[in-house]
Amino acid sequence: MMKMQDAALPSQASVVIVGGGIQGLACAFNLARNGRKGVLVLDAGYWQGGASGRNGTLIRGGFGSQAWIELFEFSTRCWQDLSRTLGHNTMFSRRGYTMVAETERTAGVLNDTIRLHHQYGVKAELLSGQGVRRVLPAIRHDKVLNAIHLADGGVAPHHAGMKAFHAACLEAGVDVRYRTRVTGIETQNGRAAAVLLGDHRIAAETIVVAAGGFNLTVAEMAGVTVPGHSMRIEAMALEPIRPLIGPGIALIDSLCYMHQTARGEVVGGTEVPERPRMSLTADFPVLARTAGVYARLFPQLAELRILRHWAGLIHATPDWAPLIGPHPELRDLWFSAGWSYGWTGGPGTGVLLARSIAEGKVERRLQPFALDRFLRGAPLTDKTIVM
């Protein structure tokens, strides 16, 4: 039997999704699961070649604003049952996620945030003193003023999560094509009507753009714009060490995230000022800053060697929140774009976006992330974001 990847491209599809990362696959799987036929996923790169194969793999539902909490807490619950839902092991590890404050200002933010977490049903605990020592025994406790521990947070490795979604999509009848570049989007009478791949045309009832760092390029193909710019994010992995860090960690003041893998490697990165760019070349400044933060908060890591250092591309929006829903200027063109926490948000957004497309109405939890929110003066700010 001919593999679907090698079969001739169709001339029409019900839904064409441009982008085969976690956002595209999650939307495709849920569309097919709900009975939608003719779902086609097209990706110019290789499987796991984008941000879904390069991010920090951390998962949390607790943030500092209602919109972020409602979407990401739902997605975190989806992660907990995802292996059962997909029929494949995602290797999700519910080890918790801890947000750490090193300054009085951020400690105050976490004091406010914990009340919001309790209001919206997030399993969260405000830690100080002995509480911090219990959850993070290896951290320099003199550097920590307080912390929030999210019991339901955790980690899911790329290879397992992406393999599970890809396999589940194929089993559900989704046509998934990698190394298949969309070169244009045809519009007719105010709607997105087809995708073009060189001389080949695929008519579509709905087109979904979930192309990560290339969202702006794909939007331009349709003659529309979306807020934000493409930029590079970097991460690194240290050589294995004995078990030292239990949960995933966000060091909010240091703009640093980290966790320890099952193999003992400490993986994470630190945010530095970055200009818009499309390069995957990893630079020394991020590596140096990340190493400095690690050594300052976890002196046990100071003498370890760096094994790997890599970069990935994201589509960064002015408020760092995603852009989800239909484009206000072109019918039948939807976006799942602008992601900075796309790995966390993928499973839940896939459920809600597929439902929204099927019903022709944006689900309540997605509405705050509308593409036109900046034009309406409604950005989504959150003080607990760490890139």
TrEMBL record:
It comes from the Bacteria. One of its GO terms (molecular function) is oxidoreductase activity. GO terms for cellular component: cytoplasm. Residues 15-355 form the FAD dependent oxidoreductase domain. The keyword Manganese does not apply. Keywords: Oxidoreductase. This is FAD-dependent oxidoreductase. The lineage of its organism: Bacteria, Pseudomonadati, Pseudomonadota, Alphaproteobacteria, Rhodobacterales.
